[in-house]
Amino acid sequence: MKIKIFTIISLIAAVLCYIFPFLTFKDYKSINGFYLITSLFKRKELHKLTENIQTYVFTSTSVPLLVTFLLFITAIALVVYYHFGKSSKALSGALGAVICAVISYGIQLSNSQTSITDFFGTILLELKTGDGNTIFKTSDITSQTGLGAKLLVIVSFVSLIFVAVLKIMDTRERNKGDNIQTPWTMAIKQFKRNKLAIVGLFLISFLIIICFYGPVFSKYPLLKTDIIMAKLKPGPGHLLGTDSSGRDILTRLMYGGRISITVALLPYCWKYFWVLL
Fold this sequence. Notes:
Layout: H1 2-16, E1 21-25, E2 28-32, H2 33-38, E3 43-45, E4 55-60, H3 63-85, H4 88-109, E5 121-128, E6 134-138, E7 143-145, H5 147-174, H6 183-193, H7 195-213, H8 249-276
Antiparallel strand pairs: 1-2, 1-7, 3-4, 4-5, 5-6
Helix pairs in contact: 1-3, 1-5, 3-4, 4-5, 7-8
C-alpha cells in the first residue's frame, strides 16, 4: 500500500515541478513550466524587473515538455485506476507513460545547441529603428536553468523507479506459485548471472543520464569564452576545470557525450527497429 502512495505522490510532484521557474534571467522575471507549455511558438516580451534595460522577446519551442506533462498526467490516472481497479494493464500503461515522459524530457533538453535558453526556446533582442520599425537581433542575455527544470529531472527518475518497483511487485504477486518459464524470465535470469553485464548496464545508463540530462544543472553555456577563467584547476565552480578559452570542461564533455552516445546507439536502434517490424 505504501509503495502505491509514494508512486502517486512522486507523479504528482513531477507535475507540480511546472509551477517553478524553468529559466531565470538577470533583471527579468523568470519563466515557469506552465508558461512554456501554454505559450508555444508565441513571441512574448520578457517582463522587466528594473528600468532602463533592453527589451527581449522569448519564443517557447517546448513541445516535448508539453508531451512530458501530458504523459505524467496520464500515468497518474492509470496508477489511480490500478489502485482502485487492480488492473495490471493499467499499471503497465503507467510504466510505459513514465518511460516515454523521461525520454520526452530528454529530447527537450537535447534541443540545446549553444546556450541554456535553447533548452526551451529562443530569445531575441528587440530594437526600434529610426523610421519606427522593429528589428530583432541575436540575444546575449544571461540566463540559467531554474529550480523547476532541475527538479523535473530528479523527480522523473524517482517516479520511474517507483512505478517500476510497483510493476515488479504486482507481477510477482500475480505469478506467485507459477513456475512457467518464459523467454523473458530466462533471459533476465541469465543476465543476472553475468556481473560484468550488470556493471556495463549501470555505466551506460549513468553516461546517458549525465550527457542528456546533466547539462540542465550546468550554469555555463557551451561556447561562451572567458579568457580570465582560462585553464582553471578542478574546483567547486568547475568540477573538471576550464580549457584554454575559459569554457567549462565538464559541460563540454556532457554536450559532446550526447553526440558520441547517439552515434554509438543509433545503428543498434535502427537494427532492432527493423527486427520488430
